[in-house]
Amino acid sequence: MELFLDVLGESLVDTAKMLPFLFLAYLLIEYIEHRHGERIEALLAGGGRWGAVPGALLGCVPQCGFSAIASNFYASRVITLGTLMAVYLATSDEAIPLLVSMPAYWDKLVVLMVIKVVYAVIVGFVLDFVLRGILPKGLRGGYTGHADEVDCHEEHNDEEGNERQAALRHTLEIFVFIFAFSLVFGLIVEGVGEDVFADLLGRMGFFQPVVAALVGLIPNCAASVLLTQLYVEGALRFSSLVAGLCTGAGVGLAVLWRANPSWKQNLFITGLTWAAGAFVGVAMQVIVAVFA
After folding, report:
1. What is the spatial distance between Cα 97 and Cα 77, in angstroms, rounded to a whole number?
2. How many whole angstroms separate alpha carbon 193 and alpha carbon 31?
């Protein structure tokens, strides 16, 4: 009981310190979404074969709504496959507000976002230009639909009038996630032993980014919270965090499976998302090993 109370107190204090930063981050997100949502959708839909650039930049906005919008647009063939993948790979869901709430990790956050945006643009361009002639025509996207025919908001219902209320709701939801994770993680580490737990994850070696990329595919903000907290606790390498957050497209994949009628295309895109995330994580791992 004493161990439980100690871990409970530490988890509560550590999580409470994040609340002001989390609230401010979500307040900004709600402002952008409610005041500029239609402009953002128009920018994403109008990118054409160069849509990977606005797709990657818009994917950086830390909420799952834009990945859902991109999935709906792709299902209606408004955007290309490269633009869709750029949005997916750049999306980090709840990881950005979580890292913003920890000033000690702001430098890592900048590096993380630069890597994700650059990589998302590269993958998008490879798909839309280099591999365009190889990919089946039905998979390429971006040539028949119109943005005004697509209802992009059916999967992402937010309060229309009260941005502060919506920001507070998001803050409290993520607070509960973080607190619950911190409590469970702390109890596991204390019970098993920090060295044993770290050694278990460390033994994954080459496969750690591969496993992290699989976790990122879970269409829920809990996946990005889990990956970020594991990294903060020192149990996950930075390369694995990048891999997991590259595949962490929020509800984007879930919307794709519902909106796009071809299960073969959906399966290919899901596998491509995982492969792209795992590749960048493993590549970073190799680079660090070579130049360390």
Report:
1. 31
2. 44
Phi, psi of 61 (to 5 degrees): -60, 120
> b or e along 67-83 (b: 16 or more beta carbons within 10 Å of the residue's beta carbon)?
bbbbbbbbbbbbbbbbb
Q: How far apart are CA 73 and CA 42, in angstroms?
A: 11
Neighbours of 240 (CB within 10 A): 30
Look up residue 65 and give its two tokens. Answer: 């709504």
List the Cα angle 248/253/258 in 5-degree steps. 160
Secondary structure of residue 133 in the 3-state scheme? coil
With residues binned 3-state (H G I as helix, E B as strand, rest as coil), the percentages for the chain, rounded to 5, are 75, 0, 20
Residue 51 phi, psi (nearest 5): -65, -10
Q: Which of 273, 286, 239, 291 is nearest to 90 (CA)?
A: 273
Q: What six digits make up the tokens of 126?
A: 């490879």
Structure tokens at 30: 């709600």
d(CA 255, CA 71): 6
CB 244 within 8 A of CB 200: no
Give the pLDDT of the chain (292 residues) as one tens digit per residue.
666 777 788 778 777 776 776 677 667 667 666 665 566 556 566 666 788 898 888 888 766 567 878 888 898 888 899 999 999 999 877 788 888 888 899 999 999 999 999 999 999 999 999 998 899 988 987 765 554 544 444 444 444 457 778 778 877 877 787 678 677 767 766 666 556 655 666 677 788 999 899 888 877 666 788 888 889 888 889 999 999 999 988 778 888 998 899 999 999 999 999 999 999 999 999 998 888 6
pTM of the model: 0.75
Which residues, at least 6 apart from 176, have a Cβ–Cβ distance to it below 8 Å?
none
DSSP conformation letters of 264-291: HHHHHHHHHHHHHHHHHHHHHHHHHHHH
Q: What is d(CA 82, CA 251) in angstroms, rounded to the nearest whole number?
A: 18
